[in-house]
Amino acid sequence: xxxxxxxxxxxxxxxxxxxxxxxxxxxxxxxxxxxxxxxxxxxxxxxxxxxxxxxxxxxxxxxxxxxxxxxxxxxxxxxxxxxxxxxxxxxxxxxxxxxxxxxxxxxxxxxxxxxxxxxxxxxxxxxxxxxxxxxxxxxxxxxxxxxxxxxxxxxxxxxxxxxxxxxxxxxxxxxxxxxxxxxxxxxxxxxxxxxxxxxxxxxxxxxxxxxxxxxxxxxxxxxxxxxxxxxxxxxxxxxxxxxxxxxxxxxxxxxxxxxxxxxxxxxxxxxxxxxxxxxxxxxxxxxxxxxxxxxxxxxxxxxxxxxxxxxxxxxxxxxxxxxxxxxxxxxxxxxxxxxxxxxxxxxxxxxxxxxxxxxxxxxxxxxxxxxxxxxxxxxxxxxxxxxxxxxxxxxxxxxxxxxxxxxxxxxxxxxxxxxxxxxxxxxxxxxxxxxxxxxxxxxxxxxxxxxx
Length: 452
Hints:
mainly alpha, 18 helices, 0% strand, globular
C-alpha cells in the first residue's frame, strides 16, 4: 500500500510573515509616510519640469554628469561639452535660450554663459557619479530623457535626509505626529524643490547635516559606531564644502557637552576625553579632506576658470548682516518664497519662523538635559556666527569675498527643525504642525500638476 505524502500547510507561515510585516509597518509608519511623500513630491515635480535648466548652476552640473563615463572628472578651465551646449541652445534656462542656434555646430562657445567654460570643477566627482548612475538606470528602465532621469536622483538624497531626521527626532523623544508634520514641511519647502528636483549639489546637504548631528549624539549617548562621524565629515566635504556648517555644528555640540561643568551630572573623564578627541578629529579630518581636494584640483587644472563677477571687497556691514542670513528667512526658504509655483507667501511664512522660534525655544526650555542645552547653544552659535566666519575667512585667504547665501545653510536645517520640534508641547500645536505639513505637500503637488 503506497504512502500518501501531503504538502505542509504554508498558511501559518504566510500569516506569521504578514503579521510581522504589519507590526513593522505600524511601528514605522511615520518614516514610511515621509519616504512616500518624498517620492510623490520629487517624482511629480520633476516630471512636470520642462527641459529648461535651473538657473542655480544646473547647466554646468548637467555637463559634469554627462562627462562622468568618458572622463570621470571635470577640470578648471575646461570647456562645456557638446551635450550641455545643445541643451542650453535648444531649451535654455529660466532666462531663455542662449548660445548658438539649436541644431548648429555649437562652436561659438563665447556666446554661451561664462564663455562656455565650466564652473563645476570645484566639486569632486562623487555627487555627479551618483547622479549619472541613477540617471542611467532610470533612463534604461523607463525611457525618460536623461536630464529628467538624472534629476530624479534627488529623491534618494531627500528620502535619506528625512529618514535621518526621523531618527534624530526619535532620539530627542519628539512625538511621531510632530515628526510627521515637520518632515512633510521640509519635503515641501522651497529649499527641497530647488535642490531635489533639479541636478543640484545642494541635494546631499540635508542628509549630510542630519547624519553628522545623529552621530554626534550617538557619541554623547555612548552608542557604538560614533567614530563614523569622521568618514561622514570627509565624504560630506567632498560632496559639497558648505556641509562644513553641519559638521561644525556637530563638533561644537561635542565640545560644549564635554566641557560643560556639571555639579549634579558629573561626566567621566574617559567619556569627556573620547568626545573631545572625536570632535577635534572630525574637524581636522574635514579640513584635511578639503585641503587634499584643493591640491588635486590645482594639480589637474587646464587653466584659469571663468570670471563670474561675484567677487567683492570686504565690508564690515556685510559681515554683520550675515549674522541673520541663516535665521530669517533661513535655508528652508532657499530658492524663493513660492518655490517657483506662485504659491501664496502666507503658506510659506511659517517656514521663515522655524530657525528663530526653535533656537529661542530650546535656549529657554526648562530642562536638566545637558545634551539639549549643548544642542541649543551650539545651534544658536552656528546660526549666527558660521556665515560671518566663512565671509571673514574668505577675505583672509583669498583677499576678496563672495556672497554667502541662505542655501549654504541647508546642512543646518536638521538642527533647526529638531529645535522647533522640541518646543511643540501640546495637542493643539501637534495637530497644527501635522495639518500645516500636509497642506504644504498637497499644495506643491497640486501646483506642479496644474502649472504648464
